[in-house]
Amino acid sequence: MMTLIGRESEKEQLSGHVRAAGGRSLVVIGESGVGKTALLDHAAEIAAQEGHLVIRATGVEAESDLPYAGLHQLLSALLPDIARLEDGRRAVFDAVFDAVFDRTTAELPSVMMLGIALLDLLSRVAAKRPVLLVLDEGHWLDGSSADVLGFAGRRISAAPVKLLVAVRADVPSRFDAAALPEVPVGALTDEDAALLLDQRHPALRRRVRQVVLDQARGNPLALLELPAHVAGSDGRIPEDAFGRPGVPLPRRLRRLYGTRIAALTDAVGAELLMGALDGVGAGLGDRSREPCYRMREVDEAVACGLLDIEPVTGDVTFRHPLVRSSVVQMATPDQRRAAHAALAQVHRDNPERHAVHLGMAAVDPDGEVAEILEAAAGGATRRGGAIAAVGLLTRAAELSESPTDRSRRLSRAAFVAGHTARLGQAHRLVLSDLAAGPGPSPASVVATANLALFQDGAAHCTHRQVTAAIESLRDSGQARSAETIDRLVVLLITISQYAADHTLWETTRDLLDSLGDLVTERSRIYGSTWSDVVRHGSGWSEPLERAAANLQDQEPWDVTRLAVSAYHLDILNQFRPHLQRVVTRELETGAVLSGMVMLNLIMLEQLAAGEWDAAEGTAQRALSLETEHGQELLAHQTRAHLAQLAALRGQAGRARELQAVVDSWARPRGVGFLTQIVDAAGAAAALSAGDYETAYLHAVEITRPGTFQPWSGQAARTLLDLVEAALHTGRAQEARLHALAARDAGLTDLSPRLALITYGALMMTADDEKEATEMYECAESHPAAARFPFELARIRLAHGIRLRHVRDRAAARRLLVRAAESFERLGAGGWAERARTELRITAAAPRASTLNLASLTWQERRIAGLAASGMTNKEIGTRLHLSPRTVGSHLYRIFPKLGVTKRAALRDALSWEDELTA
User: In angstroms, rounded to a whole number, what is the distance separating the alpha carbons of residues 608 and 620?
Assistant: First the structure.
């Protein structure tokens, strides 16, 4: 039996209809393509399996005016039975056949006479075996046949005869007034639609899959037909001028609404075309901040089921996305241009919408329209519409009057396309620039280098290409575009960051110095902070903080670049609210590549803030998108950060697995930025497990003690790891040397996190208690200390251990308790266990955390307190008017909540809170 996705209720009703005793009639009603035929097939299959005679017919639009054409289809299967009827009954059916074949007849029988004859015939047949009459496309059945079947359907109650008719909800038919029971069939639920699509088209890319689901809106026929037409042979999805998917409909789907659209008057058809081209019901209004075109005087289209009326606003909208697509595809080019011209006037006050329609109405090159389109593209990118901006710039290039303007606009279109993660499209756009000349143009260098870097991790060869392009522009006597040079400069800095290679970085710095004023302040910020903040990061926090106050007016790629600098200077928290507000918008309609980077940055800030569960979710979301878009570099970067998170949580196996995946991809390609991150993850995992020698070996892979490897993003960030690993492996002199190097390099003034861990390193390696206490107090009292809970907990743990060694057990316990509490809250299992071990060494019993104390009820807290004071169960019961047995039951529940097993440990457990606040 066929498998239908969803439709459980409908299948149950049809099965009951077929298996019921006696005769029954049922009409299945639903939109075009909703799966009515599949349900009829399901019912017919059940009937055949249970021994029914199944007789099928299908209404045909071309025969809808032929009297009794439909009834003839049904009767043809019963000709032997008709031949055995007495003459009077047989003559009634002969008249029907004569009418079908246009023979001369005296007078056609009445509906009642023919209906009675049909009931008699069906009763005779059903006496041998039950009968199921299945009529598909009943809305196209000729009126005479529909009337007879309706008459018979209302009366087949005694004989085992079932009538099953399927009609469309949006096409009037004689069955609408037949007074037969109905089964409505609606669109599939979102879950069932996704299941059907995945079952029939399992290999669809995420974006293609989403476009199909959006366009089909639960229509099974569309779900099955669209996938082959949404993406072209190159995998690209066609888009309209607004960046919306422009889905080409196959003929079968166009027929769903095409006949009704073609039958509209010219005026109504023109209104529908303007609504379709302006995106009515397509979700554009929110981004453009302007409502779409309001179609007027379209009652005709509402009446024939093409439009619906919104119950709240009273606006008309397309009944289904396929209607909108059909309207556009059925219009002629001249009709579309005329509609665009009219819409351009409607939206004179909306720059983006006005520009789109103006550009689509133009035929010949028009410099003024091209300028309007280019200006609108800039506004679109800042509002999260980078995908639409690519279309605007491409159209502006097509309408440009000079080769120079065309080349410039194509270059910008390619640049924006690259940031929408459409690196292939960016490459095609620069190749279409006829004015680029014989050699590689700067735009083509940007496009090919981005493609090679982000998809293949080719850092070293792309560095050579971009360097050569910048040198050529610098040395040429031609006019130089500041925008073009800036794109190349930022790309060169990006490549240098990922390579993390001393030689490449020195080449980059020398080249930037040779460009003088052509290098913008923004580019100097990036070049000074993206890798070696120890030597070049000083003084850039203030410009970044100023930029953070005005992010809404920045291009999305500028926001992410500034935020990367903020991460290295540990002020990313100032950028995080904006990133969280816009990231989903960018991922859907904007700079998708920037959106992926935003997710990585949000994850890093969540990691720093101790929101580790949220960081895991954000990273997994980023990894899914990066993998789908083929962004291998970013995908491995996300895996590297996930390895760090796993290491901090003490998940050594997972950390090693991710570390191996990233290292095997990045090291052969020379992507030092990623190998350093996984080395840092290896050090953190080893420290969490107490394997200090391994931690030391990982740490010195990043930087040697007493120095900070130039152009290494992790050199300063792993300061505590190297110091602690050195101390625990008998390398105290190296640890002290490294802590002093951090102080002398001015790390305390560079960033809040570097200040915190520098104080911690100096405290750990101090020769006397006075310095250790001073450095600890500097860390504890730092204004930003609470923003880095894991680092602060490590410093408290280390100082608590030091205090224990100098016999100040009470002070040590207070710090160790706070450290253990922080590690437990974070989920840093290995570190929490170390803190608990140190607490045991201080001779204090392991205590419950405040989280567990908070889980006690008021009654349980009273009982625990009384038991801790030494009272027996009987004494507690007397005090609280409880039985000793009830007191014992309460204590049975209290012990595991507080993490104790003995009555004597209750006092220490309950004193935890006092020690935290001491």
Answer: 17
